[in-house]
Amino acid sequence: MKKLFLASLMMLSLSTVCLAQGDSKMESMKEQQKVLKLNTKLNGLRMDYQKAIQETAELQQKAAEANAKANSSTTAASYSTSDASATAKVAKERAKVLKKVKKANDKLAKSQKKVKTLEKKIRDTEAELAKLDEKIQFVDQ
């Protein structure tokens, strides 16, 4: 009876140790899986960020061209009190140019906001990744 009791006690303690060790490995593997998912997310964010930067540069160039065109079209000599129809036509063209400038500047502002948002997401993801790396290194030790 004592032998049976000792054998069962030994098996119970051995299985407890094995389960505890297996749980630690599983936890470590789950953490590594989270790290891989975050790395994938981070790479996607970085690609989106590069695209947004290129788009912003293009929009910045278009906005600069539109602003230059709007600035060059402001001629006080084209407005005259003697020819009202010509003045109205010039004013209408000027309004179109200013509308294009506003549209280009709005697109640029939206693109710049997108870049800032992506920068923030990248920083947050990198911070979360650093935390998980520390956790994994602590578990491995």
Automatic annotation (TrEMBL):
Keywords annotated in UniProt: Coiled coil, Signal
Region feature Disordered, mapped onto this chain: 63-86
Coiled-coil residues: 94-135
Leader peptide range in chain numbering: 1-20
Full protein name: SlyB protein
Species of provenance: Hoylesella pleuritidis F0068
